[in-house]
Amino acid sequence: MPASSIEQTFLAQLTQQGFHMRSFRQRRLGAHPVFEISLAGGQTVLMWLRPTSSDSDCSQRLFESETALLRWLSSHSAVPAPHLLHVLPSSAEIPGNAFVTQSMTGGPIKDSYPTLSSWAKEQLVRSYADFALKLFDIDIPQTIGSISITSSTDELVVIPRICSANHAHAPGVFPTLQKYLEYLSTLKKRRAFTSDTGEESRFRAQASISQLIAHLRGHLTQLDERCVRRMVLAHDGLGDMNFMVDSSGNITGILDWWRNSTLPAILAADYPPWLRYDGINDPRFAAPRKSWLETQEESARLRRIYQGAVKSNDFYYTALMQGAQLRAAVGWVFDIEDDPCCARMRQWTLSTFGPPIGSPSNDNQVYHYIATGSFSAVQSPDVFQIVFVLSFNVFLVFKFLFLFLLSFESLMQVFSETLHTISCSHTRRLCE
């Protein structure tokens, strides 16, 4: 595929920076365009493009966060991230960013996985366990957020979680998991309110989100306090195209570090993404176009191998085993697939936790709750539901007043016209 004018400009900049190119080709790696460049000295490097989205500030901050983290990982960690060589920032002439790294062997897991032997698949699980434990052991500031460009080669700095194309900027760093869950609840409700149309659909969505959050509040009390309080570095965007794998099942590279965050250990410890069949990946509740690399039965067997591979780290193993439901629930918050009224999420919540105690357990109770404003159908309604119902009732009152004023204005206009007609008629009679 020929390079575009923007890509050609970046390639020209590389030449000016001393990279003497012999040839280049575009490759399918990660979420954005990548060029594999052969240099005159025989070395091969990769140039990663990061286009600017409609939110240019967001794109710039994500790029800065990614390059800051890659620079730090290149100096301090054996995590298989691309080794950063050079950064090409955007300019007035180039609406985008790029950086250059050393080349990597292997290919994307989506292309390689079907060709792997059973032994290689087991080795891939062990290789992922090695990566996960290395990432887990990195010492970071103990707040929830994203890596800052102000991070030095000696110290990582955390800033408020940076937005992506589908999510809003966080108002600040979060000191606790509880504060982070409150933010996620607000985020999900805001997105559901804008994506659903109609009052009934919006209420269904808001009620479903409130029920899920109510369950999570109770669930947090059952978790190991260490796994809730300690923050670790995490990669939020692991998927089919950003794992580089060789034919023996070894992970040779992890891509797309613009989706990084610092999270409580209970959320960061997880199974390899291609083996997950829970939450939004559960076939009973997944989006229609969802696909899996591995069968459900084989995934269960390989997950047991993964448990054995990480069991030497008791802290990680505890977080992995205890956090399954919490991680699946958070996955629903970031799910961008079509889910009118949060129906799929609601069904998963009912299947996982059962009807919420002290909240409407079926739609008839919910509609009684909103129509009457009475909490007789429930013993202890969730605070989010109370706020939503009160807001909804206020909306109905204002809607009634608005319609009343419109009707009153029409009546007054008719009355005025009638008086005017009578007055004119009376004046003509006097003149006669």
Supply database-style keywords.
5-stranded antiparallel β-sheet; alpha+beta; 3-stranded antiparallel β-sheet; 14 helices; single chain
Can you give a write-up of this model?
The protein has 14 helices and twelve strands. Mean pLDDT is 82; it is low at 360-382. The chain is globular and about 95 Å long. Helices cover 49% and strands 13% of the residues. Helix 4 packs across helix 9, helix 5 (177-195) runs antiparallel to helix 6 and helix 6 (199-220) packs parallel to helix 12. The protein has a five-stranded antiparallel beta sheet with strand order 1-2-3-5-4, with helices on both faces. A three-stranded antiparallel beta sheet has the order 6-10-11. It has 432 residues and is α+β, with helices and mostly antiparallel strands.
How would you briefly describe this protein structure?
Helix content is 49%, strand content 13%. It has 432 residues and is of the alpha+beta class.
Give the overall average pLDDT.
Answer: 82
Query: Helix fraction?
Result: 40-55%
Largest sheet: 5 strands, antiparallel
* Shape verdict: globular
Q: How many DSSP helices?
A: 14
The secondary-structure class comes to alpha+beta
List the helices and strands and how they pair.
Blueprint: H1 5-16, E1 21-27, E2 34-39, E3 44-51, H2 56-76, E4 84-88, E5 96-102, E6 107-108, H3 109-112, H4 118-136, E7 146-147, E8 158-159, H5 177-195, H6 199-220, H7 225-229, E9 231-235, E10 243-245, E11 251-254, E12 260-264, H8 265-268, H9 296-310, H10 314-322, H11 324-333, H12 343-353, H13 363-372, H14 383-431
Helix pairs in contact: 4-9, 5-6, 6-12, 6-14
